[in-house]
Amino acid sequence: MNAVAVVGLDCVFPAARGAEAYWDLLMRGGDAIGPLPADRRGYGFDHTVRGGFLDDAAAFDSDFFTLAPREAAAMDPQQRLLLQCAWRALEDSGRSPASLADTDTGVFIGVMGSEWAQLHMADYAAVTPQLGAGSSAGMTANRISYHLNLKGPSLAVDTACSSSLVAVHLAVNSLLAGECSTALAGGANIVLTPALGMVYRQMGLMAPDGRCKPFSRDADGIGRSDGAGVVVLRRLEDALADGQRVYAVVRGTAVNQDGRSNGVTAPNKWSQRAVVAAAYRRAGVRADQISFIEAHGTGTALGDIIECAALGELHAVPRTRPCAIGSVKGNIGHTEAAAGIAGLIKTALALHHRTVPASRFATAENPQLRLAERGLSLLSAPVRLPAGEVFAGVSSFGMGGTNAHAVLAGPPRGPRPARRGHPAAGVFTLSADTPEALRRNLAAQAETLARRPRGDAAAVCWTSNRAKTGLPHRAAFTARDTAELAETLRRAAADHLPESAADHTWRPAAVGFLYSGHGCQEPGMTAALYREHPLYRRHLDDVDDVLGPHTGGSVRDLILAGDPAVHRTRWALPAQFAVACALTRTLAGLGVLPDAVLGHGAGEYAAAVAAGVLELPDAARLVAAHAAAADTLPESGMLAVRGARAEIEDVLTAHPELFPAALDGPRDLVLAGPAQALEQAAETLAERGLHVRALRSAHPAHGPAAAAVADRIHTAFATLSPARPGIVLASTRYGRTLADETMDAAYWAGLAVEPVRFADALSALVHEVAPTCLVEIGPAPHLLRLAERADLPAGIRLLHPAPGPDATGADLAEALGGLYVSGVEPYWDALYEPEHRRAEPLAPYVFSDARRYWQTARPADRPQPAAPAAPGEAPAPAPAAAGEPAAAPRREPGGTPGDPVLSAVIAAVVEVGEYPPEQVHAQARFYEDLGFDSVMIMQLKDRIERHLPHTAGLSVQQLLPALRSVGSLAAFVQEWAGAKAMA
């Protein structure tokens, strides 16, 4: 299949930030031309200049991309716009930008030089390494590849006004050649100086009113404009296989050159005709199949005549209706290097919506163009495209003679997914780099969802899981219905902080699984989950098959029937084991594996399987043997007591037949023994105000009476050789994590007769693993209640995928959402049925516009540095730009008050990156939080020497290992200086 799909896109054009706003502008025939923004009036423009200008090209979310303010301020605004467009376009493609890190994804960007460089690099006293990289046209592509960690081709293309469509051509060919599997293609243009406008004026190409009027009898020249756009391209078969939404299909592209014509800047009709014809041949289409063409259409009288003549050479053929032509330059002006991508995005959206927007100046058609006889027409109103396959063309011609054309087709129409009777539960996930950004994006998603027709939320949730990168501040919401989800998001955005949001200090996830013990079983437990979720259904069936030969019946059938016989010990232990193993395997299928496990008493069988100590068939045989032996014991019971051991000591003395079966916490005990003695003890303890609760158990799971069980375990274990745990295993027999002990027959026999030391085991697990979340694996949240009373460290999330007998897929989804918020990256696909794994439109990421980076003064007017910079050093920070708040007083959070070395290091870091002083503190990490690179490290060394002269001689190589945080660097500098002084 020799075709490439447009699977994602984003853009920012005058009066149109984002693809939705762009389409709205086109459909209403909007005019984006206006006066020059105030922040550009210091560069020599005539105050009467008009054009298509972005309302706030200075805004850039540098913190999101971990860019130091000094570097962000030195970057060409084209680089800043493209970084944000690339991120949003990838999200729009239904794939998280982070998921493409370290892949062969290519980046192809069209750019016409750098007016930013013209303005800043001539001021030699202000030149810095950051300004050098920030002013390079070639860095427009490299910057995207660097920040997203993309390893495919990365190049900038300058063919003047055709640059971005030539970039698309190169990206398409790179994909078809197998050079990359995903490609970002686009272009950008920011009008910063009047120079090119002066050139156009002297050539007779500049419109006096700054407005392009393509194909109009009033056409009188070009109006310059800002803009940036990026599309995400993939081979069509790959896009369809991954369930990505396809806006349009690129069927063929071509690029050629005018050669020697009547001037290097003059258009050539024959070359334009040839490039269009070549693209048609490669696409395998005829001219009469083309429904519309997004023409180059600059609105210069000569240019329009030549382009229409070239198209007429091909399209003046018998056809049922003329080919519509138009040019988005009539709406937004000439975006120069971004003109091709502006036309391509317009065409892709038209094919996606199956509607061609009107040509803005269609009512004043230029009769010299002879459109009708050439098989062409202008649209005075939007037109619906006919049913079936539709083709369109996009042209872009460079002033130096490099021409490009692309043929696009409408997206393939697949079968609509069948509707299910009961809406499936999904987890809508969203993340951001700050709490404020999370609320901002929650609100944007709520607004987008509220505008769509109400329906099942599963596909929307799946799209969010795939497209939204797991940033530090996370939120997750379980939903079945889009209207319900929109309202949930709206409420969350309005709160000070969503309850489901993770703190910025979250660390890599560490997950502990807690396996419920005897007495937690319920008739019908997880039956609803079994019916609703195929993954759990498959795993419970598998475990039941393994247990069946040893139990003499099906525990699965017993569970699904809601049979109260599940309380009989011979069924209770195998049933709980089956549920626990099935839940463990279900979570593993969803990408959730434990870092540590703890089983409460008999729950250690399932924990041992999870830790790799026992194979499932061996554990199943042991559980069945244990249950069968315990079922023959005299009937007795168990009593949960909320009280300290000292408060019940006299009761145990009065009833020696009772014994503590479990030590679950400082004030959580379980007593076991004959039913009559337990009843008497319960009355006594209740009279004292202690909370008591009888557990559903016909036989005690632990204690001296279970000696016969221990003997049976010894026999069953005779042929087994247990392995050592592959992960941390906290033993409730020993009340600690296992070291070199083997979980052999003696271990399991001892577990059967000795008290369960859950509280000590949990404390040991938390101390050793420092879990971010604890997940109970069983049919009820019994152990989580104990954990809530265990005085755990703050920040541990307690989760349960099946928190009761009526648990459904929504409960499993809720637990998965909690794991995601805690830092786990689940394998989301397994949560959804195949028909739900399809891309749905979501609001793109909303970046912060709080920071602005713009120089309002001309280079000659800027204040010069007070002193020359040291070798390899950047000059001192410039004053805050106009409209920027003054820097806050410096503080040193986390540092020792008055520590002169720490203060000096903080001051040096602030100067190197021009950070707000409050952003730099002892805990700030150089790479993750401050965005340091090798150039900044060199500058930091020089700054430290300036602030602390006694550190002269300290090398960069010596600094590198200490660059974990600002505090660790200060400690190293102090230690190094001390050692030097002693030497």
Automatic annotation (TrEMBL):
Gene3D superfamilies: 3.30.70.3290, 3.40.47.10, ACP-like, Malonyl-Coenzyme A Acyl Carrier Protein, domain 2. GO terms for biological process: antibiotic biosynthetic process; DIM/DIP cell wall layer assembly; fatty acid biosynthetic process. Residues 863-888 have a biased composition (Low complexity). Pfam families: Acyl_transf_1, KAsynt_C_assoc, ketoacyl-synt, Ketoacyl-synt_C, PP-binding. Residues 1-410 form the Ketosynthase family 3 (KS3) domain. Residues 896-977 form the Carrier domain. This is Polyketide synthase. One of its GO terms (molecular function) is 3-oxoacyl-[acyl-carrier-protein] synthase activity. InterPro entries: Ac_transferase_dom_sf, ACP-like_sf, Acyl_transferase_dom, Acyl_Trfase/lysoPLipase, Ketoacyl_synth_AS, Ketoacyl_synth_C, Ketoacyl_synth_N, Malonyl_transacylase_ACP-bd. GO terms for cellular component: cytoplasm; plasma membrane. Residues 857-900 are annotated as: Disordered. It comes from Streptomyces fuscichromogenes. Keywords: Acyltransferase, Antibiotic biosynthesis, Phosphopantetheine, Phosphoprotein, Transferase.
